[in-house]
Design brief:
Oligomer: single chain
Number of domains: 2
Radius of gyration: 26 Å
CATH class of the largest domain: Alpha Beta
CATH architecture of the largest domain: Alpha-Beta Complex
Order of helices and strands: HHHHHHHHHHHHEEEEHEEEEHHE
Structural class: alpha+beta
Number of strands: 9
């Protein structure tokens, strides 16, 4: 980890005074007139004129709404999170309604946002707040961090935004702003660099207007100090920003060290059992990809699917292999090979598992926990279960094929098996 020692990157002469106001050895020194004491005033003056003030979570700023927004905005852009926040708060307007809701309903409301552990943690944390705090969120960092899914920066954001209390945040936007402004090198995810960033963030946090400052520094990172093509000409911090003055915006923050191994690809066969207007879905294990969501049973290959599907009323003569569905995760790519298998009509859409327990697919866990899921939108809207985005799209394609009468004859749709 490297830090510049003067405004233009040259080392301070021996014996020269560092007028930055930082603790020596903790944060980069500034020899310009700008110091941590002027960082917040400049930022707040910019935010007063240009900051975002009409985002839905900025209205009725309660701990519950702030918490929801902070969790949704993790790994998610504002434009994507906004409609989810509006729908989520309409369905779960307060922490008590979220705590009382079935997990399936919560996952259904979250479906499409990804990183589903966030939704499971939201549900668990809401239940803890209701159970242990009678619906009142803790008002200390330690109390909030004891809840599932809430870390140091999220806890600080809740207290700052909801109560205007002085707490320091350090999310991805703030790390980018401070790293560039101070010229701090080294990947921000490394412990030593992160410690330095926390010290720097604490030194810049003002004694007043904490809610506005917290929103302002997040806004600056989201709207001007962006990853690519930052709008430095409009930035209130450009006068002493090391990255701007040295034209190193593209280099800072330092990127994560490149992984040496090739990107992994996982390929599985999914059993798409179709019966009239329903498909068979099973709950995935709580841990792992799409944890707690509903999906099709998975098999290692087509042979295993054909031999172990477990449906006594299947019509294998009409089975087809559909085109592979591709889906990318952070660290690997998933290839889903749909094996579409018509099955005789179930007694009802909520019929119990028709598959033999001994024929559970090898990749989905122990006892089958399944249900017939209605494909028609008007009916499916009432069936609130969480579905991964690629599975929901596949269900829609199967619904279209069913409506076209594909499964009522020997017409070819995909490759015959």
């Amino acid at each position: 980890m490297k830090r510049r020692s003067s405004l233009h990157g040259d080392a301070l002469p021996q014996g020269a005074a560092d007028t930055s106001g930082y603790t020596p050895g903790h944060t980069p020194g500034h020899t310009s007139a700008y110091a941590p004491t002027t960082f917040a005033p400049r930022l707040l003056a910019w935010w007063d004129v240009h900051g975002r003030k009409t985002l839905p979570w900025q209205q009725q700023r309660t701990p519950y709404r702030v918490w929801l927004s902070e969790v949704m905005l993790q790994q998610t852009q504002v434009s994507t999170a906004t409609p989810y926040f509006l729908r989520f708060t309409a369905q779960f307007p307060e922490v008590q309604t979220l705590a009382a809701a079935p997990l399936d309903a919560v996952l259904h409301g979250w479906a499409g946002l990804g990183y589903y552990a966030r939704a499971r943690n939201l549900h668990a944390a809401a239940q803890a707040v209701v159970r242990e705090g009678a619906g009142v969120f803790p008002e200390t960092l330690d109390g909030l961090q004891a809840l599932p899914g809430i870390g140091r920066s999220t806890a600080a954001a809740i207290l700052s935004l909801a109560h205007d209390a002085r707490h320091t945040i350090l999310d991805g936007n703030v790390k980018r702003v401070l790293t560039r402004w101070a010229g701090l090198e080294g990947f921000p995810g490394l412990p030593a660099v992160e410690r330095e960033l926390w010290r720097l963030a604490e030194a810049c946090t003002p004694q007043g207007r904490n809610a506005d400052y917290t929103q302002a520094i997040m806004d600056l990172g989201a709207t001007l100090c962006t990853r690519a093509r930052p709008a430095c000409a409009l930035c209130p911090l450009q006068a002493d920003c090391v990255a701007y003055l040295s034209q190193r915006q593209a280099e800072l923050p330092t990127r994560r060290p490149a992984a040496k191994r090739a990107r992994r690809v996982r390929r599985v066969v999914v059993l798409v059992a179709v019966s009239q207007d329903a498909v068979w879905l099973e709950a995935r294990p709580a841990k792992g990809i799409w944890g707690g969501l509903w999906s099709f049973p998975e098999f290692a290959d087509l042979t295993a699917a054909a031999e172990l599907h477990g449906f006594a009323s299947a019509q294998p003569a009409l089975a087809r292999v559909w085109p592979t569905v591709l889906h990318s995760f952070t660290h690997y790519d998933l290839e889903l090979v749909p094996w579409v298998l018509p099955v005789s009509a179930p007694a009802s859409a909520s019929a119990s598992a028709p598959r033999q327990a001994a024929s559970v697919p090898p990749l989905t866990g122990a006892e089958p926990n399944g249900r017939w899921y209605p494909m028609r939108r008007t009916t499916a809207a009432k069936t609130r279960v969480g579905l991964p985005a690629p599975i929901e799209r596949l269900i829609e394609a199967v619904a279209d094929a069913t409506a076209a009468g594909i499964f009522s004859s020997d017409e070819a749709l995909g490759e015959r098996t």
